């Protein structure tokens, strides 16, 4: 489902004399349907950079990233948007929403975007919000004023609304209480069971041990630095 080959990435700091920071070289891995792969490696090794390349936010200088038949290193912006709508989900700790849109619509939106009937999309959103313990009195309000933990849970509900074939998880259990952490772990397990290919960063080591079938240490892809 996800195939990374010969991936290379460096950053050029144009406002700092054009300094070049090489981060990845020759990165390669694959993630099959129903498999969860955890990215590991010390801080600064490049975990977030790999995730951003996989989501099409950063462009790689070398290599290929195939997700659901689309090569992200060569795709047009509209192809990336279509991939994100249909195939590739991303759950981070942080919610980014349009102000004034009610929570229920925020969560239902990915299902509406793929053409699901409105009543089914709203049912799905209600089910996820209830499961993630967002009080029903909040569903008609915009999540912009919610607490950090509530926003994180709304974001998770939105990320799991549509059963994406591929899913990127950036610390999905960070700062959750034990009960909601357990709900999120179950959602990830259900997605795996449905065949979703998952790449995640989990600083929560017990969560990583439970969910990940394999770990990939991205420091193996650090370019050899000239002495
Ligand atoms: N937009 C950017 N511009 C310049 N350098 C960047 C950029 N993004 C990442 N880097 C550099 O790439 C390297 C890898 O960073 P990255 O955030 O991917 O590491 P990480 O493994 O996710 O670290 P952490 O566990 O601390 O989040 C770092 O040296 C960082 O400074």
From TrEMBL:
Coiled coil: none annotated. GO terms for molecular function: ATP binding; ATP hydrolysis activity; lyase activity. Residues 2-226 form the ABC transporter domain. Keywords: ATP-binding, Lyase, Nucleotide-binding. Pfam families: ABC_tran. The keyword Hydrolase does not apply. Belongs to the ABC transporter superfamily. This is Phosphonate C-P lyase system protein PhnL. It comes from Rhodophyticola porphyridii. The gene is phnL.
């Amino acid at each position: 489902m996800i195939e990374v080959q010969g991936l290379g990435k460096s950053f050029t700091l144009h406002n700092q004399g054009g300094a070049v920071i090489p981060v990845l070289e020759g990165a390669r891995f694959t993630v099959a349907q129903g498999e969860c792969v955890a990215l590991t490696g010390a801080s600064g090794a490049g975990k977030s950079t790999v995730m951003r390349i996989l989501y099409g936010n950063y462009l790689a200088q070398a290599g290929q990233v195939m997700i659901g038949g689309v090569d992200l290193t060569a795709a047009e912006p509209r192809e990336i948007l279509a991939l994100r709508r249909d195939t590739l989900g991303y759950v981070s700790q942080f919610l980014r929403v349009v102000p004034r849109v009610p929570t229920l619509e925020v969560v239902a939106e990915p299902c509406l975007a793929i053409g699901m009937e409105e009543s089914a999309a709203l049912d799905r959103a209600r089910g996820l919000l209830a499961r993630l313990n967002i009080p029903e009195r909040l569903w008609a309000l915009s999540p912009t004023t919610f607490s950090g933990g509530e926003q994180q849970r709304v974001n998770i509900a939105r990320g799991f609304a549509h059963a994406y074939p591929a899913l990127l998880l950036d610390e999905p259990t960070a700062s959750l209480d034990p009960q909601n952490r357990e709900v999120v772990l179950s959602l990830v397990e259900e997605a795996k069971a449905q065949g979703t290919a998952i790449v995640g960063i989990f600083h929560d080591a017990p969560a990583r041990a439970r969910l990940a079938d394999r770990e990939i240490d991205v420091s193996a892809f650090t370019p050899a630095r000239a002495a």
